[in-house]
Write a structure and sequence with these properties.
Blueprint lengths: L2 H8 L12 E2 L2 H11 L6 E5 L5 H7 L4 E6 L2 H11 L5 E5 L16 E6 L5 H10 L4 E9 H7 L10 H9 E9 L4 E2 L6 E8 L9 H11 L7 H7 L4 H11 L12 H17 L6
Parallel strand pairs: 2-3, 2-5, 3-4, 5-6
Antiparallel strand pairs: 1-8, 6-9, 7-9
Helix pairs in contact: 2-3, 5-7, 8-11, 10-11
The protein binds S-adenosyl-L-homocysteine (SAH).
S-adenosyl-L-homocysteine binds next to strand 1, helix 3 and strand 3.
């Protein structure tokens, strides 16, 4: 029997599929993912959804500290029993969507890893991106279809809001596809390990918030062209006419054909125009 199945039987774990529970039981894959993270002796690694602790144990072999987040009390009991005496592992009862990643290792960048619950992939991804200044890399197991969207290139069907936002802030790569057979219980879908290395950015980006608003508006209706989407989202016709003529981006194009550089260019031009015409103060 594998370690996962032994622990499930020993602790009479009731597997909660609703929490996305599918435990990785292949030791080689666990080792491969840990080697992608490459935890160093002076680093803190935050693991999302530690489950029964298979990955936690591997990470803790080389990491300075591992913070293992888990939401299910049954699994927290197992994790506490398993790592209670291990000084560099901290088990936290925590919903990942509430965790403040900036508290993990104040003043130092952390790494984040997780075979995450797929039902909240998108909120987890965007939450992590919001903490990118405190993180050097994210290594996450996603459902394969979602991974393809995260790493998609312009002009493809998968290219959308997650692709642009991830490309803006990280260098992304799909590292390996993992078949359901390597999990217990097996998920219904294939999975993929995605590594996102956070780009070094100079200071705070003053256009950051506008950029995300622009991208979300541009993709709101996939069959509409970018001009119509932006008009629909409330951008002014006059501003858009100027911006499109200056940017040399044809307003008839659809968002899915625009590169990261083109989105960046548009957002800067839009910001400059609205700075010239500040909205009336109330
Ligand atoms: N990392 C383990 C478990 C993966 S399954 C392994 O590879 O074997 C996903 C894990 O995320 C489960 O343990 C589940 O209980 C946990 N989880 C689900 N929702 C969560 C949430 N909102 N916050 C933290 N953990 C969560």
């Amino acid at each position: 029997m594998t370690e996962v199945r032994t622990l499930v039987a020993k602790h009479k774990i009731h597997i909660r599929k609703k929490l996305g529970q599918s435990f990785l039981e292949d030791v080689n894959i666990i080792k491969k993912i840990a080697s992608l993270v490459a935890p160093a002796a002076d680093e803190t690694i935050v693991e999302i959804g530690a489950g029964l602790g298979g990955m936690t144990e591997e990470l803790a072999k080389t990491a300075g500290r591992v913070i293992a987040l888990e939401i299910d009390p049954q699994l927290l009991d197992v994790l506490r029993e398993r790592f209670g005496r291990q000084e560099n592992v901290e088990v936290l009862a925590m919903d990942v969507l509430k965790y403040d990643f900036s508290q993990a290792d104040k003043g130092k960048k952390i790494k984040v890893v997780g075979n995450i619950p797929y039902y909240i992939s998108s909120p987890i991804l965007f939450r992590l991106l919001s903490f990118r200044q405190q993180v050097s890399s994210f290594t996450l197991m996603f459902q394969k279809e979602f991974a393809e969207r995260v790493a998609a290139l312009p002009g493809t069907k998968q290219y959308g809001i997650p692709s642009v936002m991830v490309a803006k802030y990280t260098d992304v790569s799909c590292e390996m596809v993992v078949s359901p057979a390597f999990f217990y219980p097996p998920p219904d879908v294939a999975s993929c390990v995605v590594r996102m290395t956070v780009k070094q950015m100079e200071d705070d980006d003053p256009y950051e918030e506008r950029f995300e608003r622009l991208v979300r508006a541009a993709f709101a209706h996939r069959r509409k062209n970018i001009l119509n989407n932006l008009l629909y989202a409330g951008f002014s016709k006059e501003a858009l006419d100027i911006v499109f003529s200056q940017s040399r981006i044809a307003p008839q194009r659809r968002a899915e054909t625009l590169s990261l550089e083109e989105f960046t260019n548009l957002s800067i031009l839009l910001a400059e125009i609205s700075n010239q015409n500040p909205p009336p103060k109330i």
